Each structure stands twice: as structure tokens, then as C-alpha cells.
Amino acid sequence: MDRIVVRRATVDDYDGVKRISKGIYEGRDILPDVYFKCMANPAKNGVVAELDGEIVAFEMVHIVDGGRTAVVQSGRSSPNIRGRGIFGLMEKRHFTDILFPRFPRIARMRTMSTKTDFFESKDDGTEIIMRRVVISLGDVPVPLADFVHRLTPQRMAALRQQLPIDSLAPADGNTLKDILAAPLSTKHLFPEGVMVTDVDVFDAHGSNTRMAVDGCSAIFVTGSASSMYESLSFGHGAACQLGCRYTIDYYGTPDHSVILAHVSRHLPLVREVSRGRPLLIHLIVAEAMLGEVLRRHVNEFAVANVASTGQSPSYFKLYTMTHPLSAPNPRL
Prior knowledge:
This is N-acetyltransferase domain-containing protein. It comes from Ridgeia piscesae. The chain is about 35% helix and about 30% strand. By secondary structure, the chain is an alpha+beta fold. The protein has 2 domains: about 5-105, Gcn5-related N-acetyltransferase (GNAT) (Aminopeptidase, 3-Layer(aba) Sandwich); about 130-320, Aminopeptidase. A 12-stranded mixed β-sheet has the order 1-2-3-4-5-14-6-13-12-11-10-7, sandwiched between helices. β12 (about 245-250), α10 (about 255-275) and β13 form a beta-alpha-beta unit. The longest helix is centred in the last third of the chain and has 19 residues, at about 255-275. The protein starts with a strand and ends in an 8-residue tail after the last strand.
């Protein structure tokens, strides 16, 4: 690994990063679509690892929580370099040489993963702080024409009769700020003290409001500041190789009808942000919510309203972890 050079990524590295990302996540990778936006964000710091002048690995770190947390995301590497410790080397140099000099208050690193084996084997204070389930509403992309055919005005009217859709209100950064200023609402929606929006992880604190809503296609809530906010969903749409991936992060009341009402409010927006591409829709809920009742109703909803192939949804676990860091040598 002596020939590895780690440096800050630039917009000119797009083709190299896209090349090593080919085939990752089975066509569901959104990094090529958001790469330039990430590079323009001063709170996001990308690095590449080069071997003999060729990009072989990439990762992005988002600095949040007032500079105290580094959220590691979008890691990928060339197949011929995997399993050789490239990410450990890259992260150490990234933090020691680039991040700590610029953000000396960093005290922890947060990551999301579908696996925990590697992190659980490390005696470095790593903790799982959130356990969620990703529900893929159909394993294959839904053709937009089929989706629009299912999402007729008549069908939406029927859904309004079945689900409490009209109790949901559009929300924005001011709404989220109100929520995070109300201890009762914050504790109800974010019991772990953490909120995840797409690939970002934030402390549930008002200072993170702007970053949390940045890039959201839509936000919906039930409840009010005068009583308590009972449910909340963030929607994010981005292009991927298979089409358009739309992710709905849901928080709050575990009632299946409320959860599916949120999905129903996002569905028309999914059509708008897809720009004609096939659709992949992911609903993410707390692991504790996924009982047999919710699973059954989600399956019925997906087959009737989303998955034109008649497929049932697939489910996989998603863990959010935190790792303590200390300058100048982070324990990675």
C-alpha cells in the first residue's frame, strides 16, 4: 500500500469515481447524480485514493453537528483493491491530514451499514445508535407508465377513503425547527436523539435544521406545535442507473395507516421527480415498527399501488453506528 496516494477529490475526478462505482448496489447507486452537488458543499469533504495515478477508492465525509460529527458516506473501491485495508488507510489519512486541521472539534464518526460484524469485532467504543428497516416496494424498477396508470385520480381518492392522508400537512425547515424546539415532539419522533435523512445522520437539534432539509424533495407531518407532532417523513429523489430512487424516511407513530398515508402523499411527487425514468421506492422505518401487521399492510399496499410486476416488497436491516475519535490520530 506504499504506492497509494490519498488526496482531496475534485469535480475533475467524476469519471474516475464513476468508473469504480460501476455495478455497485446493483444499479441503485445515486452518487453519480449527486457528485457535483456534494463537491460544491463546503461541509462535505471527498477524498480519492490513487494507485499509480489511477483512482481506486473514494469516500465522502459530511461534517455536521456544529463540527463535532463526521458522517462517512459513499465509500467505494475498485474490485482489485478490496479486502486490502484501503479504507482504513484512506480514512486515517483523510482525518489526520485533511479533516482535523480544518475541523478540530470532531469527536466522533458516524456510518450506516447493512452489516455490523466488522464494527462489532472492534474494541473501540463503536455503538449501534439506530436500527431501521428498508422496505423496497418492489425489487425491480416500476415503469413510469405503469405507475401513472395505477396512480389515477380515482385511485388516490380511494386511498383518501382508506388512509388518513388529509391529516398530513406539508412541512419545511421552519416546521422542523418547531419540532426540535419542543422536547415532547422531539422525544416522540427521534427517541434515539438522532435523525437520518437519506444518507445523512444528525443529532436531533435545531442547529441542524438547514442541513437536514437540504435536498429533500418533500416533508410531511401530522400533529401541530400547539399539541405534539406525531409523525414525520422526509422524501429524497435522485437518479440511479436503474432509473429514479425515491427514499422515504419515516418517524413517529407506528400505526400502519399513518405510515401508508405518508407514502401516499409522497407518491405524486415520486412521479414528478422521476422525470420519466423507471422508479424504485424505498420506505425506511424503525426496526421496532416492523411487526406482522405492518408487513402485511405494506405488502398489500405495494402490490396494489406501486409494484406493477405484482412483486412483494423486500426487507433488509440498516444500522447507524457511532465511533469515538480523538485528534490527531483517530481510532479507525
